[in-house]
Amino acid sequence: MHRVLNRRCYIPFEKSKKLEYEVVKKWLMPPISEEFRNNILLLPEFLPTLHEAKKSGGWSSRVVFGKHIYMWRVSNFSYWRPVLKKFYEVGGHSQNIKSLELRKYSNVEYISQSMPGNSLNMYSFFITFQNQNSAKLILDRAITLEFSAGYAFQHFIDHAYAYINFLSEFLKKNPGVHVILPAPNKSFIDREFLLNKIGVLNPIHNAIAGESINIRELIVLKALPKDILYSVPYSLTSLLSSKVNSELKSTKNKKIALIIREEKNRNFNDLNEIIDQLLNFASNNGLELQLIYPNRISTKELANLLSDCLIFVGLHGGAMCNLLFMPKNSYILEIVPDNEGASLFHLAIGGGFKYLPIPMNYELGTTAVSMKMSDLNSALDFVLADLNKIEG
């Protein structure tokens, strides 16, 4: 196992006696296929702006005293340049996971840790030898993920969901095994629906910070060489997408969906104008405009609304993670900040969607975002041309 010693460095977790484990099963992850490489759509007029987007920091691997550690590189670098060159290493995070292991530990104590807000990189637990005096809960068999990403909707969808789906057959064959996940935050009320959607009906234990659990047999899904943010193998995201949505068989009588944020930041400043432009595009192309307010409906209702949509438009943010419920081969138009590294590229590409980033002049903390209508129109025309090419 591993434990975080600080927010910027991971090293192996070791005690005076190393915890022993058995590798129950191991899977090799396939390389990126052309199917994924061909799903990014880039408008020539957007390329100069995309080239300028910078990301402050990224993870890199180093060998220190013969061991791999992962250090945070603080220098700014181009966020989109690797994508534009088809390296597919968005934000400095490559598809670095080469294999997955199921590791079985016997008679261990699971200790849950608090998670900083908006964090995916820190472990939500560590394990050690059992202490009969500290644990308040005893479980016979349990399974958990090596990483966190289970307590917030966007991070669950973006990171943990694909791994849990990958384990769904194992869980189905072992219905009595408890699944240990970080307790969801107050706004994440639909996790049970998401788990049921992929057939996971096992008992779920929501671990709270500081909780201690004695477990006779703990199975941990371990990513090798190391799990890093935004490095979910595309093959796993593709499996998940296939399970939660359907193939897009026709472009007729489909919808174009606009997701409308109602948050403290990143709300459309010119919403009415955007709606008018999308209505005009929809009516000219035999489509119906679907306005989606994610804060007003359940995830189940939202998933149903997106199930027959052809085009999904929205500002970068957690609500865009609902793109996973779109039919495969549909179009994702994400309005991304032009001077910061932020996108859901990896989720869209891995899920089998056609992804088109629209750079816009805003920061993640901006309250109101003004849309450049000519850019939106160019993106829609580009999608239309791609559709005509497919149908032709």
Short description:
The chain contains eleven helices and 18 strands.
Annotation keywords:
392 residues; five-stranded parallel sheet; 2 domains; alpha/beta; 11 helices; 32% strand; 18 strands; Rossmann fold
How are the elements arranged and paired?
Blueprint: E1 2-6, E2 9-12, E3 21-28, H1 34-37, H2 47-52, E4 54-64, E5 67-78, H3 81-84, E6 99-112, E7 125-129, E8 137-145, H4 153-166, H5 168-173, E9 178-182, H6 191-197, E10 204-207, E11 212-224, H7 234-244, E12 255-259, E13 267-268, H8 271-284, E14 288-292, H9 299-306, E15 309-315, E16 331-337, H10 345-350, E17 354-360, E18 368-369, H11 373-391
What is the ordering of alpha helices and beta strands? EEEHHEEHEEEHHEHEEHEEHEHEEHEEH
Query: C-alpha Rg, in Å?
Result: 22 Å
Q: What structural class do you assign from the helix and strand content?
A: alpha/beta
Mean pLDDT: 82
Number of domains: 2
Give the % helix: 25-40%
Amino- and carboxy-terminal Cα gap: 53 Å
> What is the count of DSSP helices, taking H or I runs of 4+ residues?
11
- The outline comes out as elongated
Beta-strand residue fraction: 25-35%
In terms of per-residue confidence, which ranges show pLDDT below 50 for 5 or more consecutive residues? 1-16, 87-92
* Quaternary structure type: single chain
SS elements, strand count: 18
What does the main sheet amount to?
A: 7 strands, mixed
